[in-house]
Write a structure and sequence with these properties.
7 helices; 293 residues; mainly alpha
């Protein structure tokens, strides 16, 4: 199984092409620092980064269900690294969104920025190493698109929708982080499989709806308007929240098992993708709710 997030399916966050080592039948491969399974049913003593020159033996933090904790060491990813990189990428998205809003960027240019961001995101997702310039460029163009589409929705469809979407995204992030740290949300193989099945179904339905809208006109099958639009908007936000939990788990694993510091850029990129997803779903849902009044 691969990670739900294309970023985390690359090296450092996917051991032996699996999701966080959830495949308990996999055996470590010689010379592969990501092949060991930290989530096998046996003792969690193997370090998937053991051949990493920066890695050291993990230390158990004493709490059942938590991965072993390792003290900070030069060259290894820390939570501070992830927070700092995420602040940079999300901050750049917000800054460029503000520019697009203030300059009243046209929807045509916004669509071009979205396509560029999509290409940059795909390129980074399939690279074996993080490229900070590529990630920051993605954040910049994504911000331009978000700013323009938010300005359009806020001024022509639903006044105040952008701020409500921002507050909603922040609330979801805080709630999922709290529930993850409190272990109310537990990322297991069953959780991962359920989320992935739901996500695949959701994307397929949205793709079919888009095709009907393009070739048949109107709202397609109606999955993005009216009552169905509200339902699918809520489902999209819930899926985004589930992706956040998966992202938190991957970051926790990377820190605990000694991932190289450069992987913090991939963590920031993945978290930014998920936050953008949640924001757009909130924006769409608020627009539907206010337009139906």
């Amino acid at each position: 199984m691969r990670s739900s997030n294309p970023v985390f399916s690359r090296r450092g966050f996917s051991r032996d092409n699996g999701y966080a080592g959830f495949d308990a039948t996999q055996q470590p491969q010689a010379g592969n620092p990501y092949a060991a399974n930290p989530y096998a049913t046996g003792p969690q003593s193997a370090n998937p980064y053991a051949t990493n020159p920066y890695a050291q033996q993990p230390q158990t933090d004493g709490r059942p269900g938590f991965p072993p904790a390792a003290p900070p060491q030069a060259g290894r990813m820390t939570m501070d690294d992830v927070v700092a990189r995420t602040a940079m990428t999300v901050g750049l998205v917000v800054a460029m969104a503000t520019v697009a809003w203030v300059t009243d960027l046209s929807l045509g240019l916004a669509l071009g920025a979205m396509l560029i961001a999509l290409v940059l995101g795909l390129v980074q997702s399939f690279k074996r190493k993080a490229s900070p310039p590529l990630i920051l460029a993605y954040a910049a163009f994504e911000g331009l698109f978000l700013g323009a589409i938010s300005n359009f929705v806020d001024s022509r469809i639903a006044s105040g929708a952008a701020m409500q979407a921002v507050l909603g995204t922040m609330a979801v992030f805080a709630a999922v982080l709290f529930m993850y740290k409190a272990r109310i949300i537990r990322v297991t193989r069953r959780f991962y499989r359920f989320v992935m099945a739901a996500a695949i179904g959701f994307v397929l339905l949205m793709g079919i709806n888009l095709l009907f809208a393009v070739f048949g006109g109107g709202d397609g099958l109606g999955f993005r308007s009216g009552g169905l639009g509200i339902l699918f908007g809520v489902i999209g936000i819930v899926l985004g929240a589930a992706f956040l939990a998966l992202d938190f788990k991957q970051v926790e694993d990377g820190v605990a098992y000694g991932a190289p510091r450069e992987e913090s850029w991939l963590a920031a990129f993945g978290l930014t993708l998920t936050l953008v997803w949640i924001y757009l779903e909130f924006l769409r849902l608020i627009a539907i709710l206010q337009s139906s009044d």
